[in-house]
């Protein structure tokens, strides 16, 4: 299945995919947006604000999964990766670059927008940014050898297109890049998504995003923090080479 780097014009489609994919999610759906069915546009606009803000963060990469229908490209999935620590060296922008001002500007614009047009799909406004505000409670898991990581910040596949391998392809992209950089991969998994991420290779659980006294995510379902460590990614590559070599040896035997 084809994936490509997102462009700015993709965001209306990306936001719609996120709203569809997370409609039944325990965090973005049930906990933060219990009134999403009454106010579906507000629910989608939540993702529009979030995605646009991270678009201007040059440690992030957004990729889209596409299908072709009626000879036209259709975006049906998205994956947003964040390069952390050494994984971002040489790829981001310098501290003095004026583009560093774009994300703070977008954050202020989002704050103003929310004040003028409050998110009506939210029942408790204090929870709207619960995941971001919870980050200090579990950020310590990204330390020492795991400080350098490709972190899967968000993955969304439209429900009508799930089960086609699109999500796995978006995950595989980040894992390939992490392997090239010699760093680990990481993700915070929802309760529903945990099994999927385990099958993708995130096989080392280290904690929960809900941990810590005062954490706004306390009591939320899911939130297990999963890693694929750098040495395991290297083993994956060795296994691929071994299988390929076995296939070559078998072909040689067959031609003798």
Automatic annotation (TrEMBL):
Lineage top rank: taxon: Eukaryota
Segments forming domain N-acetyltransferase: 30-238
SUPFAM superfamilies for this protein: Acyl-CoA N-acyltransferases (Nat) (SSF55729)
Family matches, as InterPro entries: Acyl_CoA_acyltransferase (IPR016181), GNAT_dom (IPR000182), Trichothecene_AcTrans (IPR052523)
Gene3D superfamilies assigned: 3.40.630.30
UniProt-recorded name of the protein: N-acetyltransferase domain-containing protein
């Amino acid at each position: 299945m084809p994936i490509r780097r997102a462009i700015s014009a993709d965001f209306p489609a990306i936001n719609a995919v996120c709203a569809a994919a997370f409609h039944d999610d325990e965090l973005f759906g049930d906990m933060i947006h219990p009134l999403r069915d009454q106010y579906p546009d507000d629910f989608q606009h939540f993702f529009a604000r979030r995605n646009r803000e991270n678009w201007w963060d040059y440690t992030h990469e957004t990729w889209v999964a596409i299908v072709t229908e009626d000879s036209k490209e259709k975006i049906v999935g998205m994956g947003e990766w964040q390069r952390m620590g050494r994984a971002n060296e040489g790829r981001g922008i310098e501290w003095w670059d004026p583009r560093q001002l774009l994300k703070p500007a977008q954050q202020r614009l989002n704050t103003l927008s929310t004040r003028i047009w409050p998110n009506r799909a939210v029942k408790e406004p204090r929870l709207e940014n619960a995941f971001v505000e919870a980050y200090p409670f579990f950020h310590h898991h990204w330390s020492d050898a795991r400080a350098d990581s490709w972190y899967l910040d968000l993955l969304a596949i439209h429900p009508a297109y799930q089960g086609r391998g699109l999500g796995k392809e978006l995950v595989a992209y980040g894992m390939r890049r992490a392997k090239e950089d010699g760093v680990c991969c990481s993700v915070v998994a929802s309760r529903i998504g945990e099994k999927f991420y385990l099958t993708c290779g995130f096989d080392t659980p280290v904690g929960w995003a809900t941990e810590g006294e005062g954490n706004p995510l306390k009591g939320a379902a899911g939130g297990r923090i999963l890693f694929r460590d750098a040495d395991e990614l290297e083993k994956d590559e060795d296994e691929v080479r071994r299988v390929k070599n076995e296939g070559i040896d078998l072909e040689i035997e067959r031609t003798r």
